[in-house]
Amino acid sequence: MITSATGLIIGMIAYIGHNYLSTQIDKTANKMEAASADFMDVLQEPTR
Asked: CA-CA distance, 43 to 27, in Å (whole number)?
């Protein structure tokens, strides 16, 4: 019974950690995508 409870606790901690890291990766990817879109906009601007 102790090993089952310990396994469940470790599983929940791993699940929370996985969700946190996935969220951080998604945020970073969105920031990178926005930065690349801004950079492409700068490259597309006509020169004087």
From this structure: 24
Q: What is the largest CA-CA distance in the chain?
A: 75
User: CA angle, 36 as apex, 41 and 46 as ends, to 5°?
Assistant: 15
* Residue position matching structure tokens 């970073």: 28
Distance in angstroms (rounded) separating the CA atoms of residues 26 and 33 = 10
Is the pTM higher than 0.85? The answer reads: no
| pLDDT tens, position by position, 29-41 | 999 999 999 999 9
